[in-house]
Amino acid sequence: MRRGRLQIAEDMNLEARENGGTRKSRRREALLAEMESIFLEEGFAAVTVDGLAKRLKCSKRTLYEIAPTKQDIVLLVVERWLARVRRMGRIAALGQDGPQRRIFAYVRPGVTETKKASRKFLEDIQSFEPALLALKDHQKQRMEMLEEIIEDGISKGRFRKCHAHLFAEILLAAVNRINEPDCLDAAGVGFSEAFDELYDIILNGVLV
């Protein structure tokens, strides 16, 4: 878990710099947070810089100081959101005392944060190539971290020897499926109950 610990230290330093930054940088972060909320709820394809400026009660110039074009603003907001999901996962994982709990602590923020994203937002990402590439890179990084946690569990004798990458792929696919409303409706359970059931099945199997 060495790489994960180094990354978490970098994340904490980044948060400290953001929290202790200048008034201008704090204003920038506040605007990015507000834009993130708008994009997650409404998508971003139909949003204009004029419209954003009016809703955020700032000038267009202020927004263009954050990024030079609407596309750049959108990409910055999306990458910021994805980076926070990864950071939350790493912090949660490193707060656990064993690889079993680290696995689910790591993936849970990816599910809970995605639940805030509207269908329109996710559709807009699919149709905007830079954001789609950012999402694919995000998934690749999540896969690498999850694989690292699994390999750590194998090396410590907590997991039996298995194909760590394949296990990570299957687990993320299951988690993503649970995050879809039709899956929960068909099963007749809520998200937390479904997540706990998956946790039990993965770690304990189904054989008596």
CATH superfamily: Tetracycline Repressor, domain 2
CATH topology tier name: Tetracycline Repressor, domain 2
- Rg, Å, rounded: 19 Å
Number of DSSP-assigned strands: 0
N- to C-terminal distance: 33 Å
Low-confidence stretches: none
User: What share of the residues does DSSP label as strand, in percent?
Assistant: under 5%
CATH hierarchy class name: Mainly Alpha
CATH architecture: Orthogonal Bundle
Main beta sheet: none
Tally of helical runs: 11
Number of domains: 1
What does this 3D model show about the protein?
The two termini are 33 Å apart. With 208 residues, the chain is an all-alpha fold. The protein is built from eleven helices and no strands. The protein is 80% helix and 0% strand. Helix 1 (2-19) crosses helix 5, helix 2 crosses helix 5 (70-94) and helix 6 (99-114) runs antiparallel to helix 8 (129-155). The protein has a single domain, classed as Tetracycline Repressor, domain 2 (Orthogonal Bundle).
